[in-house]
Structure prediction request, 304 residues.
Amino acid sequence: MSPDAKSSVTPVRRWLPTLALWVGIAAAVATLIVYRAELHEASAAVSALQWVLALALLLARWLLLVASWHWLLRGFAPGAGGWRASLRQTGYLLAGKYVPGKVFGILARGVDSAAAGHVRQAWTASVLDQILTFAAAVLVGLVLWASAASGQARWLLALPLVIPVLVLSIPLALGAARRLAGLMPRATRWLTPAVAAPGARRNLLAAAGCQVAQTLLVALLIMVLAPHDRIGLAGAYLVSLAGGMALLVLPGGIGAREGLFVSIAAGTLGTTAAVLLAALLRLLLTLGDLIAGLVAMWPRIVRD
Prediction:
């Protein structure tokens, strides 16, 4: 990075990552307040065992998200920071997504990488990270949904194919996004080595594998909590999760995710039960994001 670029980032670096965490955490808490009535009723129906299993799945999901980001960024910038930086930057994204526009966490990741000269690489990797998250939710959700709707368990055999499909679709997805939204003109230059170089390709496959695994953990979370038709409801919720991600103006997809899920699940559960399950899932996933944001503030994580 040129001296001019470093000097332009330095003032921003003093406040943006911390601000992304504080504003994101406050917005996440506000999200829980919005659903407080539904959360109280939904939580009462959850057993102690279900709580333990749900929290264990959330912890495993968070670690997979950290691993996905770690391998993905190193595919773009081999000299990127270690695991503490990955923990910190994952917290920036998960807390920052509750700020309308959902770019706060991505910007914070970039300026946090300024010292190593990887600002643009971190921004580009973050966009790719979001594409992987979105595509994994859609593909896994559709496979589960198709299996439940058809009553054919053999659909589940398609799950291992999601990882190569994700990797093969990345160049097309970034190219389309760049043409439609003018997204990062240099993205293609950094993407090509990440797809073509043998070492970087392994990193990309590892990141895609982590994203599929964390998506399956969300599906398992739903199966732990849902009263019946667990596979179908898991597929419906993953598709709804992707729908909430697509609406950038909504912090954390609030309202859109739940509305889409309830419209799908009401026929199986009934409207009231679907609303309560959606609220409970919102509580758990938001708690996971809050924990990631708070860990990013831990003094031993703030500094590499």
The chain has 14 helices and no strands.
